[in-house]
Design goal:
Shape: elongated
Number of helices: 12
Radius of gyration: 38 Å
Structural class: alpha+beta
Strand order of the largest sheet: 11-12-15-14-13-16
């Protein structure tokens, strides 16, 4: 039989339960603007009844607060994390593509770009047809040609700086990943300490989930949480959990332990115009490469790597045709012309997933100027087994990244200026200057030490075809040496305007300084000669701008789509786990009324006991 004061105990249990409920509501309201906070609820159940040996058998003993838990949905969390990596990728990539696009914008004379500068140069050239010997007109043309080369310097330096910025951002994101891994492992340990003692670490779980939210924007994340099993009683819940976080399928956190990534500067470039010291990412513990270019890779890290390293799958590729102890011969499938060459003069060539350091290369050209084969000189010798093992295998330099990033646009600029300079110089080499002396190359490559490459090792006619088969090397004076960084007007022409050919060499005849037969032919280079991707020289910007615009519009479309999905998932998450001010206000009134009612019950019980104790007697 229950105690005389049994009803008082029941009422007291209600007061305690609704006090907890009111406190929980107060906590929710105070965190209504806290990022990552999920609504908490006080879970109640009827206390265990007691047997009274009467007809009704068992009577209730009140209410018990069993736990205070956060309202979260693993389903929506997983959907959010999966989508967030795509949001991070396309938002980040869109930002960088907009920056690349700005380098190629042409707004006319107000802010001249390629088309305006190119047209101005040919306008100054056309002015020479009326007075080719006029010193001022010659200087005006040469000055405009310098503006033309300076345009490519500016764009190349801008893209190079952007590539360096991307590289530093890669390092920053790797540090963020490492810090997130350490925090998740630390929080998991704290959570397990609390929950093994029977508590619920709601706030710590919210903090951990928020870290995963932020991490999922950088790299694709998968999370698996499983109860710690009792080996003797597998169905027994001990209170702790194993918490495993993987990024792109590779374990980053395993409950209390975590791994770190590290950035290692490349010793050799992957592309001729790459910035120095670009980072590769490796696991700190095993030194194994983190597969940055995996097709399952996503997130803002993937976007930055695509912008920094993207070559549109046009890096050097080919098939090994022969090998000797210190060289590998390759038939190329890309970079089949000198103009398209973009491999570094010294670097790493990969064959059958094994890397070989080459110190030089030479390319054999056929009579049409196409590269028939490459021979790479190796630093370390190959044994007989290695020579036999790589025959017929595929070879590449750098990673094959099917994205139009900075290396792609640099390569496109290099290919254009090489084609243009070849044809321009071919006309010049047919002529003489105002002094009757043979004219050399007008457009040259200027090395860091001031030395000029005039491409004497590679004779190309005005149709862009080599006059005879030849072999060039990585260090020879060939158009391979010409890049957007060192594209310049020959110093002799800058210093002396007479050093520019407007007429051909007519043996035995006096030079007519106003003759302009070469100028008449060179004017066709503006729009009548196909020299870049099936288009004329003036169509260069259209080709490049089309690439950027199509890529930007595609990325923008994906960005908008994934952000719309993000909004939908976020709304679903908030509808379940978010703190709603109106709902909490109703809960506050509801629990207050319940608390007041329980207090009235205790007051009623107090009056009953007073009557029983003080007013009832014999």
């Amino acid at each position: 039989m229950p105690s005389t004061f049994f009803g008082l105990n029941i009422a007291a249990s209600a007061i305690n339960a609704f006090q907890v409920a009111v406190n929980t509501t107060a906590n929710n309201i105070s965190n209504v603007q806290t990022k990552g906070y999920s609504k908490q609820v006080a879970n109640r159940e009827a206390s265990e009844g007691i047997r009274v040996y009467q007809k009704y058998g068992v009577v209730g003993t009140g209410v018990t607060t069993t736990s205070i838990t956060s309202v979260r949905s693993t389903y929506y969390d997983t959907k959010y994390w999966n989508n967030q990596s795509s949001v991070g990728r396309y938002d980040t990539k869109l930002s960088y593509l907009n920056q690349i696009e700005n380098y190629f914008i042409d707004e006319g004379e107000a802010e001249p770009g390629f088309s305006t500068i190119f047209a101005n140069m040919f306008n100054q050239m056309n002015a020479l047809t009326s007075s080719a010997g006029d010193e001022n007109r010659r200087k005006n043309f040469i000055s405009q040609a310098q503006v033309f080369t300076a345009y490519f310097h500016d764009v190349a330096n801008g893209l190079n700086d952007l590539q360096k910025d991307c590289n530093e951002q890669v390092k920053a994101l790797v540090q963020t990943i490492n810090a997130s891994a350490a925090k998740v492992a630390s929080l998991t340990k704290q959570i397990n300490v609390i929950e093994l003692e029977g508590g619920t670490a709601n706030e710590l779980r919210d903090q951990r989930a928020l870290i995963i939210d932020e991490l999922s924007e950088i790299v694709p994340v998968t999370v698996q949480e499983t109860p710690v099993a009792n080996t003797n009683y597998p169905d027994m819940y001990l209170g702790g959990t194993n918490y495993v976080v993987k990024i792109d399928g590779q374990t980053l956190v395993n409950t209390f332990e975590y791994r770190s990534l590290t950035c290692v500067p490349r010793e050799y470039k992957a592309s001729q115009t790459d910035a120095d010291g670009l980072y590769d990412i490796v696991w700190a513990d095993t030194k194994a490469n983190f597969n940055m270019n995996s097709y399952t890779m996503d997130g803002s890290l993937k976007a930055i790597l695509e912008v920094r390293d993207g070559n549109n799958a046009e890096n050097f590729q080919g098939q090994v045709t022969a090998a000797s102890p210190y060289s590998i011969s390759i038939k190329p499938s890309t970079m089949t012309t000198v103009e398209a060459m973009n491999m570094p003069s010294e670097g790493i060539i990969t064959v059958k997933n094994k890397e070989y350091h080459y110190t030089d290369f030479k390319a054999e050209l056929d009579e049409d100027g196409n590269v028939v084969s490459y021979e790479f000189e190796l630093e370390e010798g190959l044994d007989a087994a290695q020579i036999g093992g790589i025959a017929g295998s595929k070879a590449r330099i750098g990673a094959t990244i099917d994205s139009m990033g900075i290396p792609y646009y640099m390569s496109q600029m290099n290919e254009f200026i090489r084609n243009f300079a070849e044809r321009f110089n071919a006309y010049q080499l047919e002529g003489v200057d105002l002094n009757g002396d043979p004219m050399g190359a007008f457009f040259v490559a200027t090395a860091f030490d001031g030395e000029e490459y005039d491409f004497s090792d590679q004779i190309v006619n005005k149709d862009g075809v080599t006059d005879s088969s030849s072999v060039i090397t990585a260090t020879s004076s060939s158009y391979y040496q010409l890049t957007a960084f060192n594209f310049n007007v020959a110093d002799a022409s800058v210093r002396d305007s007479s050093r520019f050919a407007t007429t051909k060499d007519v043996t035995g005849e006096d030079i007519d300084i106003d003759a302009h037969d070469i100028i008449d032919e060179m004017l066709k280079l503006q729009s009548d000669v196909k020299m870049f991707r099936g288009s004329s020289a003036e169509g260069f910007l259209s080709c490049i701008y089309t690439d950027i615009t199509v890529d930007t519009n595609e990325v923008k479309m994906f960005s908008e789509n994934f952000n719309d999905i993000k909004s939908a998932i976020t709304n679903q998450r908030l509808s379940l786990s978010g703190v709603d001010e109106d709902e909490e206000g109703l809960d506050m009134l509801k629990f207050r009324n319940a608390y007041n009612l329980a207090a009235r019950m205790m007051q009623c019980m107090q009056q009953m006991y007073d009557k029983l104790i003080n007013e009832t007697g014999v």
